[in-house]
Amino acid sequence: MARLATSNDIPALHALIESAYRGDSAKRGWTYESDLLGGQRTDVAMLETQLGDPRQSMLVIEDGPDLLACVALEDRGSGLFYLGMLTVDPTRQAGGVGKRLLGQAEAWVREHGGTRIEMTVIRQRTDLIGWYERRGYTPTGEARPFPAGDPRYGLPKRDDLEFAVLEKRL
Question: What's 3-169's CATH class?
Answer without folding.
Answer: alpha beta
